[in-house]
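Before the break, one more example. Copy the sequence into your notebook; we will annotate it together after we see the structure.
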Amino acid sequence: MYGYFMLMCIALVSRAAVASPVRASRSVQSDHELCTTSARSLLTTLRRVLEKSTVTQPEKMGSNTLFHGFNCTDLGAVMNPNTQTASVCQPIQDVTCSDEKTSPFSQTKCLQNIANDLHYHETMLDKYVKTLDERPNDESVNELRTLTESIQYLQQRCKLLPKPETSKNMWTPTNSFEDRMDLCKQLKGFQVRTITINRALGYICAGE
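Here is what the structure looks like once it is written out:
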């Protein structure tokens, strides 16, 4: 009887020990899903804004559209100069062709760079929208606010992301036409960077 009692106690303790991590795992899995789905949503929104604002005949664009007066597709992409997301978010980084050593993937550095990228572009869009007269530019304002909301949604929902660091070189508006051209290039760069962000968060959340 004593032996049976001891076996029952061991079984109950083992069950409790096994059950607890399962609940934690589900919570972590839910947090990770919020990260990856929010990142995909941001990329979808960004692509839609760029596609809607880019046409092959800029002279046919209305004056209230985002990139009226020029063809955004002709311009190159400009990346955030304050981050190294593309390099630090690679799972394995080759140092040089002649060096056999490799630097390990740093999840901390990767997530910090992602957080800094999101903060940089959120601030940039907020500054730009404030320079616009909302009534005649209502279409552009709505598009940019939708994009800003997607960035904020990812920042708020992805608990993996740390607090962003203050950037030294923040984008500052200067004049209407040059700002719109620069915004086009910045958003194209952000699209490339967001693809990297999606891949990195997918890699991190998969636990590979």
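Strands lie at 92-94, 102-104. The mean pLDDT is 80. Try to locate both features in your own notes.
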